[in-house]
Amino acid sequence: MTENWVAVSKAINERVAELGWKQRELAERSGVSQAIVREIQHHTVERRRSARTLEALSLALGWHPGHLAAVLRGRKPLAPGETGDEVIDEITARLSGIEDRLGDITDRLDVITANLATLLRASGHREIR
Description:
InterPro entries: Lambda_DNA-bd_dom_sf (IPR010982). This is Helix-turn-helix transcriptional regulator. The chain has 6 helices and no strands. The protein is mostly helical. The protein folds into 2 domains: 5-72, Orthogonal Bundle (434 Repressor (Amino-terminal Domain)), CATH 1.10.260; 83-129. Helix 2 packs across helix 3 (34-42).
């Protein structure tokens, strides 16, 4: 299996720049030593890293836990919350859409209820509950 540490370095550096972080901040947020973060970021030492190191860095950078492992192996990284199982990911995406829509409906009902209460008060009726 071919490993592309240059791609890992590039992905980390781009994300750190996007977030406006310094190397020390990434080390602190990930729990990975600054020396190891430096080696990976600058690709100065190419050696096998533990899966936990790549996972900790991925999570600290706001990615799926397997993001950097996928980059290392030349695969498309999963988005946060994705499982890699197409059926589960599709169901999760649809449920998320339903939750968003229900939130919109709830907000609209709250506005309608408030408007109705205002109208009833203005016409001398008791408040609705």
